[in-house]
Amino acid sequence: MHIVITGGAGFLGQRLATRLLARGELRGEAIQRLTLVDQVEPPCPPSDTVDVAGRALDITEPGALDTVLDARPQVVYHLAAVVSSAAEADLDLGMEVNFDATRALLEGCRGRGLANTRLIMASSVAAYGGELPAVLDDMTALQPQNSYGTQKAMCELLINDYSRRGLVDGCVLRLPTIIVRPGRPNAAASSFASSILREPLNGEEAICPVATSLQLFVMSPAKVIEALIHGAEVPGEALAPFRAFMLPGITVSVAEMLDTLRQVAGDEALARVRHEPDPRIEAIVASWPARFETRRAEALGFAGDRSLHDIVMAFIEERSR
Amino acid sequence: MHIVITGGAGFLGQRLATRLLARGELRGEAIQRLTLVDQVEPPCPPSDTVDVAGRALDITEPGALDTVLDARPQVVYHLAAVVSSAAEADLDLGMEVNFDATRALLEGCRGRGLANTRLIMASSVAAYGGELPAVLDDMTALQPQNSYGTQKAMCELLINDYSRRGLVDGCVLRLPTIIVRPGRPNAAASSFASSILREPLNGEEAICPVATSLQLFVMSPAKVIEALIHGAEVPGEALAPFRAFMLPGITVSVAEMLDTLRQVAGDEALARVRHEPDPRIEAIVASWPARFETRRAEALGFAGDRSLHDIVMAFIEERSR
Lengths: 321, 321
Ligand SMILES: NC(=O)c1ccc[n+]([C@@H]2O[C@H](COP(=O)([O-])OP(=O)(O)OC[C@H]3O[C@@H](n4cnc5c(N)ncnc54)[C@H](O)[C@@H]3O)[C@@H](O)[C@H]2O)c1
Ligand SMILES: NC(=O)c1ccc[n+]([C@@H]2O[C@H](COP(=O)([O-])OP(=O)(O)OC[C@H]3O[C@@H](n4cnc5c(N)ncnc54)[C@H](O)[C@@H]3O)[C@@H](O)[C@H]2O)c1
What we know:
Two copies of one chain form a homodimer. Chain A contains eleven helices and 14 strands.
C-alpha cells in the first residue's frame, strides 16, 4: 500500500500521516510507502516499517505530480489548497491551486490508468450558500458565495465525473468547521470557534466576536482524520450516484460551547472569554449553514463526535500528551 | 447596442438572431451591431438597420474571441456547445468547448473590464441527476450523471463567481426539453419528443420508443427565445445570490402529447405514431426530472408556455409561414 498526501505539511496532512503510520495498514493492506507532498518541505513523522518521503513541490507547476503518480499509489489524499481568504483575495491563485491542480491530478490518474486509485479530497461547508433551507441535506444545491467554495464545488463535480467514467475512484468529503484546533488564533473568520475554548483552557484570554445564540456545524480533528481514513476504505460502488457529501458534524451554539467550558474548567475559565461583538465576523459566520441531515455519510459508515463535551475532553487529553 | 452570439449558426443562435433583428432593440436600446460566431460560417439574417456580421471561429483556440470582445459588446449570448452525446463520447472535446471556452470568455471579459456586459449562457436539465425528489426546485443539488451536465454545472458556478466578484454580469438559464423542434429526427435521446408530433402533423410516420406514461419538462422554441431575450433585460441585482436557475417549462406526459395530436389533427394523425419500445432511450429519458417548481425564474419575470395545445398550434402556425 502506497499512500500520497498533497498538502502533507498542513494541519490535516500532518495529523493524517501520523495516524496512518500509527495504524500501519489501510484497506486491510500493510502501508509500505507514504509520500507527503507540499510546497514547503513536509516534516516526515518517523516510522520503522514505512518508507516515508517528503517532497517539496508546487502542485500548480505543469507535471509537478508526474513522478509521484508514476509510482502508482493506491490512495491519494488531496489536501493541498489555499484557504478561503487567500482564494477570495486572489482569484487566479485560488483557481490554480484549488481547481486547476485538482484537474491536473485527475488527468495524471487518467493518463496512467489509475482507475482503481482512491482519490480523497476535502471540500467545505463554504461550498454552500444562497437561500438555504433551515436544515440542509444531501440534495441541497451548492450555490457558493465565495471563490474558495466555488472552486471546491467545481472539483466535486469533476471528481464525480471522472469517477463515473471509471478514470479514477474519487471520494469528496465536505468538512464541518473543525474545533478545537491547536495553536494560536489566526485571521480565519472561524478562528474564534477554537479560540474561545482553547485559550481559556490554557489559562489565557479569548475574544468572542459573535452572539452566543450563533450556531455552528462542527467536528473534532480526530473525527475528521477518522473520516479521511474511512474515505479510503468505503467501497467505490457505494459512492454512486454522487461522490461528494457532508460529514456528520454536530450543531452547537456558542452558548453551549461556553457552557461546556464552564462545566469542564469552571467559572474562572469562562471569565477569560471577553465578549466584543464584531459585525464583520458575525456576518460571515452567520452565513454558514449550521444544521444538516447527513444521511449519505451515515449510511456509508462515517461517524461524528458524540457531544461537544467529548470534543473538549479530547482536546484536553491530547494537549496533556 | 452591440450583441454577440456564440454558436450563432446553431438552432437557437439562428432563431435568436432573427428575433433580435425583428425587435430592433434590446434593453431599451436600438441594436446597432450583431455578431454571430460559430465554427462554421454562420448565415446572417438580412437587416437594413443593423450591422450583422458572421465570424467563423473555433472558440477553443487561444484568443479566438479577442477581436470580438475588443469591440466591447454589451450583451454576449454564449450558446456554442457540443451536445450531450458528443461530450460523453469525447471527454476532452466536451471539457474544451463546454468548459474551457466558457472560462476563456469570462477571462476575456475580465481582462477588458467588461463588468457590465451581460453574459447569458444556456444550461440544461442534464445538469440534474442522482437521487432526485419528486418535484425539484431552485435549491435542488446538481449531481449530473453525464459529462455534458457536469461541464454545464461547472460553468454555472464559474459564471456566478465572476459575476459576484463584479467581473462580468452573468445569467445562466437552464433550458427544459425543447419541443416542437423543426427538421428531422436525430440521434438525441429526446428526438422522439418532437418527432411524435412533428412527423404525424407533416403526414409522416413517427416512432414512439417510450411508455405513454413517461413525463417530460418541455418548452417551445419561441418561449426559449423569449427567455433568452428576457435574460438580457432582467436587472443584475435581481439575479443574486445565484445566477443560474431552471426556466418555467411545463410537465407533460407522452399520453397528453398524443392526445393533443389527436385533438389537433385527428385519429388519422395519431395512427401515424408506431409504438416500438426502446429500453435504452426509455432509461435515459426517464432519468431526466420532469417536475419543477421554478419560483426564481417566475419571480424574475420569465414565462413559459400556457399549454401543450399552444405549443402544437404555434408549431403548425410557424410551419405554414
Ligand atoms: N481545516 C478546516 O477547517 C477545513 C475545513 C474544510 C476544508 N478543509 C480542507 O482540508 C484541506 C486541508 O486543510 P488544512 O486545514 O490542513 O489546511 P492547511 O492550510 O494547513 O494545509 C494545506 C496545505 O496545502 C499546501 N499548499 C498550498 N498551495 C500549494 C501548492 N501550490 N503546492 C503544494 N502544496 C500547497 C500548503 O502549504 C499547506 O501546507 C484543504 O483542502 C482545506 O481546503 C479544511
Ligand atoms: N436545444 C436544446 O434542447 C437545448 C437544451 C438545453 C440546453 N441547450 C443549450 O443551448 C445552446 C444552444 O443549443 P442549440 O440547440 O442551438 O445547439 P446547436 O448544436 O444547434 O448549436 C450549437 C452551436 O455551437 C457551435 N459550436 C460547437 N463547437 C464550437 C466551437 N469549438 N467553436 C465555435 N462554435 C462551436 C456549433 O457549430 C453549433 O452551431 C447550447 O449551449 C446547448 O447546450 C440546448
